[in-house]
Amino acid sequence: MFKYYFLLGVRSLRRNPALTALMVLTLAVGVAASVSTLTILQVMSSDPIPHKSSRLLVPLLDNGPLKGYSPGNKAEDNQMTYRDAMNLLASKQGVRRVVISGIADNIEPERADMPVMEVAGLATSSDYFAMFETPFLYGAPWTEAEDKAATGVIVLSRLQSEKMYGKTNPLGKHLRLHGNDFQIVGVLDTWNPVPRYTHLINGSGGSFNGEEGIFIPFATAVRMEFGQSGSVTCRDNVTPGFQGFLDSECTWLQFWFETKTESDRQDLQNYLNAYANEQRKLGRLPRNAPNKLFNVMEWMDNLSIVRSDSKLSVWLSFGFLLLCLVNTVGLLLAKFSVRASEVGVRRALGATRAEIFKQFLIETAVVGLAGGLLGLPLSFLGMRIIADQSAGLSVVPGMDWMMLGITFLLSVSASVLAGLLPTWRACQVTPALQLKSQ
């Protein structure tokens, strides 16, 4: 009987076409608003590297002054000093360690016909590429030995490489950066994790957009005295000169550990606590604040990557869907009320209330299916509008298969829910009264 009732539901769409179109459109708009905002939120809050996110850890040491500090306050700064970063880099804790600093400068290509280009990127350590599993189009990362020697080597993004060399392999070529000669040893393939969990602080383009154009060894950036591209927090007087800046308590670096197993996190925490105690003996870290470790998801939460207004938008969109359902209930009541005589005849011929209920409920599900089909393109349009309003969301991918299924499920479920009252009312028709009125 289901197939028969389903076909009846399809045919019923042609009855009162204006009323049917209004119901379908009402459901489609409500579902599209809900699904588009839910999709954006799901992308913003998703785990960008789920198979190892619990093993990628960000350490946080509070080196702020004691004045004005109250125990239990959240750390005012989420970056690290040069001294701490170098000590942790040399600690041999975990299986990989990465220091990150933003850089921005001008590139002078070898070709005389190429103009000087502004470029932003990272000064980092060789473990960066293996830790974050970056794909390579050409070449490979620089080595740990080149890290220690502060060699003039560089890795380009695919986009930056194609701007300068087209589709050709640029390995071995040289360019000038910050007035120094660099040799190209690698070119990354397209790699745009969303969110940009590797560089959430000071990342050019925001947390969901943009990419790094170049990568150079951090030790090389220090040797060549590259300027810092990003926020720098200095709470005390700094000795003049670049070395004075390195020796200061200014925070400007980001740091990552990768552990072999998730259970190694406690061992790393114990090391971090012991390290902080040793630094306090040297007169540093006066606040004696807890030393923290954040995995990828905790780090994004600490930095409030998903803002409260994004969550509020989802709740508001579902509130709008509820309003659409109320309107759909009224429209279904109007549609089913004109079919009272049909229900009376069916009841007189022996149809049970259960059969009538089943028939009308399947008809409402057909309306929901039609609403889902219309809601799908409206959902894509909604996501496009949201992305156009925010440059940071312009790279948010489209709807995946799970969200596609949710669109139809939500539409059908919403229509069935809206149809419960009208369907129940239709089943209460008294056959004798309807037959006398004919």
TrEMBL record:
Q: Which domain of life is it from?
A: Bacteria
Give the CC-aspect GO terms: plasma membrane
Compartment list: Cell membrane
Membrane association type: Multi-pass membrane protein
Provide the MacB-like periplasmic core domain boundaries. Answer: 20-269
Keywords of this entry: ATP-binding, Cell membrane, Membrane, Nucleotide-binding, Transmembrane, Transmembrane helix
ABC3 transporter permease C-terminal domain segment(s): 316-430
Supply the InterPro entries for this chain: ABC3_permease_C, MacB_PCD, Macrolide_Exporter_MacB
Q: One Pfam annotation, family name?
A: MacB_PCD
- Gene Ontology molecular function: ATP binding; transmembrane transporter activity
Indicate the transmembrane segments per the record: 314-338, 359-381, 401-421
PANTHER family (UniProt xref)? ABC-TYPE MACROLIDE FAMILY EXPORT SYSTEM PERMEASE COMPONENT 2, MEMBRANE COMPONENT OF TRANSPORTER-RELATED
- Name of the protein in its database record: ABC transporter ATP-binding protein
**Organism (species):** Undibacterium terreum
